[in-house]
Structures are given as structure tokens and as C-alpha cells.
Amino acid sequence: MPPIGDDPLHCEECGASLRSGTSKLGCLNCLLLGGPNEPGPESRRFQDYEICCREDGVTLDELGRGAMGITYRAQDLTLGSSVALKVISARYSGDPETRERFRREARSAAQLRHPNVAGVFHFGETDAGRCFYAMELIEGETVEAYLRRNRLLPPLLALEITTQVARALIAAEAHGLVHRDLKPSNLMIVGNDSGEPDALVVKVIDFGLAKSVALAPTGANQAHVGFSGTPDFASPEQLRPNRPSLDTRSDIYSLGTTLWYLLCGRTPFRGRSVGEEVHDEPLPLEQLVLAHVPEPVTTLLRSMLAVDPGGRPSSARELLTALQRCRQVISNPSFSFN
Predict the structure, then answer these.
(1) Is 291 in a helix, a strand, or coil?
(2) Which of 146, 156, 161, 266 has minimal Cβ neighbours within 10 Å of its Cβ?
(3) Which residues contact 227 (CB under 8 A, 6 or more apart)?
(4) Is residue 18 part of a domain?
(5) Of 181, 206, 232, 251, which is the active-site residue?
């Protein structure tokens, strides 16, 4: 089993191939999509928010970068509080239709208030047409970083993380939202120094660009939207050339891949690409055997990772019930992990 530190086949942020597309600054695709006209120190102000600089006083405090925009640490100048500010890439600032779509999606995401979700609470647009979201700033570390420090997670801890994300998906489902990019780097662990599963709090981030199932882009807008996600964590229906309308079952697949990653240190399938037609190939169950994953968890993963969405739990609530049942079985003192 390759160690967690192996170079991924795709960029964690935008999904582009990293085999020949890297530089000292990271993914070339992200850098190109970010464009040369991203905010500089002289243009850090976005209405009542100002992007923070790092200790050198010049470099912007960047929290994350993707194909559609960059997230920065920023200051709410009115309230004096820190926020996460996602600024849409300059390449989209001249497209009124795309800006309007972001506004509608931000309004949908802002309705999502849940303890396991980093909330979106403001959408704005500068005079120059730059759209941005103000979001809750989560002070913690990503599940990806946590896993790199702790290596593979014990099944009960991995299930606790997955259970909290499932609760977030129940809330999203109630508002008709599909995240489309669930993965360890979009999950934050907050305030857990004890190492006990019950003390761990998980927050799902980047719901600001979640897809409302009621907002189906068409025409030229569809060309801008394209694929949203990370190929190695994406559901088969996300990767298809003619992507169907997605629902919660797509997020359930991505969450299943995330659970597999927490248990095995890698995704079940690597090197998938956008536009690929994924067929019903067998799961590499030997990875689970080598990681000593209990049979009830293996059974759950088979369901979550079914190629046909109809073979997965039909809703986030059904998934939560399955997770709770699985945890009860393996936490029973009489259960043997051998």
C-alpha cells in the first residue's frame, strides 16, 4: 500500500493531472486559472472585508486555491472579526450570467445552518465585478492534515468523522444542495486535543459553491461550470461526458471514498479522469484486508461506493442510520476485529 505522502495523480484543488503539470509554486492549472489579475496588496478591499497579509506584509494570506477562485483569510472591518473570503477568479468577472449564478448559489448555501457546516453569510460584488463570499473561518486543521500526522485512523474514529459529515448532508439535502467535492481537505477538525472520538468536531467547508439541484446551468453557462470536484473522490456520474443531474447519492459516494481513504491511506481507484465512463468494476477489497477493516465497515463501503446510484443509500438520513448501526456493532465489547 503506497504511503499517504505519495504524490497524487491529480491536484487536490482543481483535479488537474499533476504528472506533468507541476512547478515549484504547485499546480500549473490552478495558477493559470487564477490568472495574473488576482488581488494584489493594493486591492485587498472587498466592500467591508479586507484580505489579510502574512508576516512579510506583502504576501496575501491564502487559505486555499481552486479552479474557480481563491479563499483568503480576511478581516471584517465593521465587526473586527476574522472570516474566510472566497474571491471568484478574475477570468469570470466579465460574465454577468456566471456572477448571477454564484449569487443564487450563495443564497442557497447561506440558508444552511448546521453545527457541522462552515456557514456562508455574505455575498458581495465589487464595482469592478469581482464576486466574493464571506464564510465562517474555521480555526483547526483539515482531515487530510490530521491523517498525515496520525497515519491511518482506527475504524471507530473514521466512522465518527463520516457520521458527522452525514449529519451535514442531511441538512444540505433539506435545502436541495449537493456539495460535489467532499474529500479530506474539505473537512475541518476543530478543537480536539484529547484524541477521543466524542470530543472531535468536524466542519464541512466550501459549501459556498455547492450546486443547488434546482439550478441547472445551461448553454454558455454550462461551459463555465464544467466539472466541479476532484476526480479520485468524485462519483461515477460526476465524471461522465454528459453529466446527469446530481443528488445526495453523489455526495454519499464521495463520502464513501473519503472513509476508504481514512482507513487505507488512499482512494480505492486512482487516476480517474473527467469524461470517463466508469463501469461496474470490483472494489479493491484487498486494501481493506491489509488495513484490518472490520467486515461491517466493508459492507457499508460496498453500499456507499456502488457505481449505480440506486445501489447506494437513497438519502443522507438512510446513510446516517447505516453508520450508526455499523458503529454499534463494532463498538460492542464482544465484537472481534480479527
Answers:
(1) coil
(2) 156
(3) 15, 234, 238, 239, 243, 274
(4) no
(5) 181
Q: Both 257 and 146 in a single domain?
A: yes
Q: What is the CATH number of the domain that holds 292?
A: 1.10.510.10
Distances, alpha carbon 176 to alpha carbons 118, 212, 262, 305, in Å? 17, 6, 27, 22
Domain residue limits at 210: 141-331
Closest CA to 65 of 101, 16, 12, 118: 12
Phi, psi at 58, each rounded to 5°: -125, -50
Residues of the chain predicted below pLDDT 70: 1-42, 66-68, 192-198, 208-229, 243-244, 273, 275-276, 338
Give per-residue pLDDT as tens, 204-251: 987 755 665 554 444 333 433 455 668 899 999 988 877 668 899 999
- CA 282 to CA 305: how far, in whole Å? 10
Domain count, the chain: 2
Closest CA to 285 of 302, 303, 265, 262: 302
- Give yes or no: 308 in active site: no
pLDDT tens figures, 165-212:
999 999 999 988 899 889 999 999 987 555 555 578 999 987 755 665
Residues 158 and 113 in one domain: no
> Is residue 11 assigned to a domain?
no
The average confidence (pLDDT) of the chain is 81
Same domain, 222 and 153: yes
Q: Are residues 181 and 325 in the same domain?
A: yes
Q: Is residue 337 part of a domain?
A: no
What is the C-alpha to C-alpha distance for residues 3 and 66, in angstroms, rounded to an integer?
Answer: 25
314 occurs within a structural domain: yes
* Number of neighbouring beta carbons within 10 Å of residue 332: 9
